[in-house]
Specification:
Blueprint (H helix, E strand, L loop, with lengths): L3 E13 L8 E15 H4 L1 H10 L3 E7 L3 E2 L15 H13 L6 E7 L9 H16 L6 H12 L5 H6 L2 E6 L6 E6 L6 E7 L5 H6 L7 H20 L2 H7 L6 H4 L6 H10 L4 E4 L6 E5 L4 H14 L4 E5 L8 E6 L2
Parallel strand pairs: 3-5
Antiparallel strand pairs: 1-2, 1-12, 2-5, 2-6, 3-4, 6-7, 8-10, 8-11, 9-10
Length: 332
Amino acid sequence: MHPISTVSVTVPATTANLGPGFDCIGAALTLHNQFKFTRLDTLKGASATSQAGERGGAIITVTDSKLGEIPCGWPEQVNTDADNLVYKAFLKLYKHLGKTPPPVQIEINLGIPLARGLGSSATAIAGGLVGANLLAGSPLSQTQVMELAIAIEGHPDNVVPALLGGCRLAATGLAAQQWEICDITWHPDIVPVVAIPDFELSTGEARRVLPVQYTRADAIFNTAHLGLLVRGLETGKVDWLRTALQDKIHQPYRKALIPGYDAVYSAALSAGAFGMVISGAGPTVLALASLATASAVALAMADAWNNEGIKAEARSLSIDTGGATSTAETGK
């Protein structure tokens, strides 16, 4: 039986936090990054294997579905040297196994904007781990891969739905490094609408503006609203969703980093959205709308940003229920 020589992995974008669910809740969306891993020692021969060795064990190429080939010097999830986040996750799994990683060619095709709050780094981590696990013969279970992904990312709200799909709530278990993952039902009449502005916001910058401590009242507020959000997503009850999307932990501080936020918020609600939140660390914003109003909400959000002098793309999406999917080929 021939060993696996090539693995292709598709990973969905994510929207995290969802208002009061800071660092614990996220949902997979129907935008995707694709990763292809080819073992050079089985397919490409000595010259390609040597070339990979000279470049830290990998030959990495990155293309964008809209822009074409991307040059070096981009963020770590897409640069083309040994600091590439996909490759670092790939190496992490082999280190976890205590095995030597094979020389590999990694082809990355981007369909998710970078540094926009849509989980691009989570897709890199998930893609690297899933690809490595398959090339290694699938020694780790999905749960073990997930736990390794959370350890790399530092929090679960993006990597868990990226791997598993759907809307997920993550909580630490009783044992160290153990996680309990709860699948949250997303009512089919609730449409996620994203508005993606033409500027970046780093997660590090978005975290630096947050307070070190919060009041008891704010903690209680978010606890109550997160519970209501879970029920609102399940039932589709509009009044619950309108109330539930409020937050006092991160959005009041982060929205100052997003020019035009208040104008986009007002436009979304005027067009019929149930509410609007910052997607992940931003600057993308997420509105929840009905099937009947989603298109109008998307148009209103994009127009509001354009009126502020900021180019933005807005679109209605769906919840990706499949998570990270993969195919594998064996060598000849």
